[in-house]
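Troubleshooting log. The previous structure file for this entry was overwritten by mistake, so regenerating from the original sequence record. Sequence copied from the archived sheet and checked twice against the printout by T.R.
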Amino acid sequence: MNKLLLICWLLMSSTGWVLAQTHTIKGKVTDAATGQPLPFVSVQLKGTSTGTQTDAAGNFSLNVPAGQNAGLVFSYLGYQSVTQNADGNASLNIQLQKDNKNLDEVVVVGYGQVKKRDLTGAVVSVKGEELKKVPVTNVMESVQGKLPGVDITRSSGAAGARVNVTVRGNRSITANNGPLYIVDGVQYSSIEDINPNDIQSMEVLKDASSTAIYGSRGANGVIIVTTKRGSTGKPKVNVNTYVGVSQVAGYPKVNSGPQYVALKREANRTTGRWNSEADDPKIFNAFELNAIENDLWTRYSDLLIQDGLQQDYQVGVSAGSEKTKVYLSLDYFDEKGLFKLDRLRRYSARLNVDQVVNKVLKVGMQSQITYYDQSVRRDPLNQANKIIPLGVPFDENGNFIPFPNSGPHINPLADEQPDAYQNQPRITRTFATGYVELTPLEGLSLRSYAGITLENMRTGIYASQNTIDRATSSGSRSQYNTGTIRTINWENVLNYRRAFGDHDIGVTAVASLLSDQRDSSSIQGEGQLLPKQLYYALQNNARGIAIRSSYQASKLISFTGRINYSYKGKYLLSLTGRSDGSSKLAPGNKWAFFPSVAGAWRISDEPFMRSQQLFSDLKLRASYGIAGNDAIRPYSTVTYLSRIPFSYDDTNAALAYGISDQVGNKSLKWELSATTNVGVDVGLFGSRIYASIDYYDTRTRDLLLQRTLPASGGVSNVVQNIGKTRNRGIEVGINTTNITTKDFSWTSGIVFSRNKEEIVSLADENTNDVANKWFIGSPVNVYYDYDMVGIWQSNEADEAAKFGYKPGDIKVADTNGDGAFTTADRVVLGAQVPKWSGGFNNDIRYRNFDLNIYIYARIGQWISSEYDAKYDPQGLENSAQVNYWTPENPSNEYPQPNASRSRSSTPFISSLGFRDGSFVKIRNISLGYNFGEPVLKTLHLSGLRIYVTGKNLVTFSKVKNYDPERGGNLSNPMTKLYVAGLNVEF
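Regenerated output below.
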């Protein structure tokens, strides 16, 4: 008992001693501008873990040690942090100033820059750090699903595969719908050349107000890339490298040997030719019978698909003084595809120099050279998926068997054999821009810059007789293609800005010239003397020598004016007008004027908003403008001649000429798109939540449409200004700060895009073009066929007979209800474009660790699945593993095999492959670690980060064992990538 009392006395004494050594500090935190209390403000004792938060009335209370210089740090999202010495103060009144850093960020727009707070158009900006999170071949892949209104898909999984990009849907039907890329102020078509580590920022201009200053070139959206520049002070060296293994992201398997045998037996059982295994000699040859008996069969796709390799090594140096700034980078990228002979090596170098000559003169240059050394594989999977799987590709001595089982199909491994096949493109692209800038008066600048892109390419192709492409020919083929492209862009820009009182006005004037020239030539021959000569020494080919060459050129001249006006920083107005003249269009129609107007109201800056705490930023935007499109081939206005073979009899040849398939149109004019855009930018709870929401409506008329003509006219098509389309939709981009503490933070980005694309009219208001599958009220690219609803079953024999079919046949919908299946029953099944797409990005940091998780979705798109349509009811070729109908297996998915009925004669077989291709995928998971100061000091580094990344890891879709992002093709399957990387800064 005495011991217990002693312990209690000691505890009470120590508690009193501790209380005597601390004192309580109370206070209130308010908004410096409005005086309103700020809840949930973090109050932290500097250098310790002791802290608290303000309550709903902005009040706080915190116990701090007595006698210590107690510095309190007050921090609140959207406000500037304040450190206050609390020693000796029992009560504090703290006022926090709003932090407008986010709104004061500079955004690059056409021929200038504005603060984010002053934007009137629909513009999305992405910083360079965001672009480096996903290891990619093409930088546009890194922003897939992160840019509202921008649809990005990879065309295939081949090494160096191109990326498809559209902004706010397809406006044109046959003209180009791709966006305009501007790199350092100059048009540049090959965005895949740009290394993500060289990019400072990327801006996407979407509405007509933002793109109108680029006139015809900006009709399909504008993507502006600004590369890194030199910096003053100590030189900085960055080394970035990664190495990764790529694997096939799911690939469906065709029938195994036993499955193929079962299919062919069933097909012949249907016709009465096969009843048991004793009848196998009737339907299989001797080689196949031997393979069946010894269970010899091959799944060729397993032999062709292998793991790929991707690696990148980049060094960037940034240096300079107050007057001279230099940025230099070198990069080597190497990607080995999933097939042998599929490889891309890219070498690039960049040099950016800026020099201040004096107070009024500045000059500079940006330059890049890129060299591609590529080996392209003719995709072998089509052959691998149809060849009969019985037998083996090599004999017992390891010798290659060109035609397994003496069958009609060549071995899919044929192109991989020594001296069999080569396809080697070589491309050198040089991009250089020089500028001169004068600032003779305050607020006035005149800049003239010229950019030139020179591209030289050549492709050598050699295919021996025993290759996939030449298997049915009498010899090898050699081909040598060359081409050059020269693009010159000359821009002259005047910018003037002046502020007086509450008014701020900016004026921009532009005069520009764009010249494009390109030529190509090709020579080929058959029967090369020696395989080692490949595509060289073409004069040694025995026959079939053919020569072709071509040339085309176009010019675009433009004059532009823009006025930006701001009153008190909260009422914003932008007026733009651009006049373009294009050499591609007909005389009298070459020139067009493209106007636009945009306005914005910064509601959050109004006096009546000062007393509220919900909105930290609120801006309403609206714009309207017209943009043009001339994205057709040059010379579409003229009809040209070409030489054709002709002879009077079997021995006497003569010169003969014919007009081109496409007849010229002397009335061609601009395709015009008028866009209305209404948007709102909202910051909530001290910008803890920031959202941009846009609604747009784009109406395009006078489409540059390549129209099919009746064959009786002697020509096949013509480009005309006919038809209308419409794209309208909503875009949402939300950034949130979920948690932020000293050791832990979590931020998220949510993107949602919904676009309704439709053809409004074609040759007339109400007539569809069924031959080209263009339908009024539907998107441009749709799937049009019979609607398969199942297979006729045995209990439906009488009903099937009414239509002329029997159990086991494909059953389709009688959509017009006329009691018969005719072409009139075909309907639009779905569209290639999604109903909506979106992304969910998460960045999590815990001390020195950082984690990025990114999820991407594309919902409502349809695909034409080559695998699901790969069904041969005769069993002459291999097929997909499908559940086909038999009397014992009444499947409702695939029709009954039938040896007497070919694919082409099987009713409605084209309807088998259409599928809902919606998907959700884990696009990227990356985990990194940033080494702290002790390690950096030891290694004499400024920064050191190691990371591992998984790209395209998992896809959730109704289409199994296949990534539907690229559509339904089985060639060059999509890949997933596992990467380990290193970022070093000196």
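The chain has ten helices and 49 strands. Archived copy saved in two places this time.
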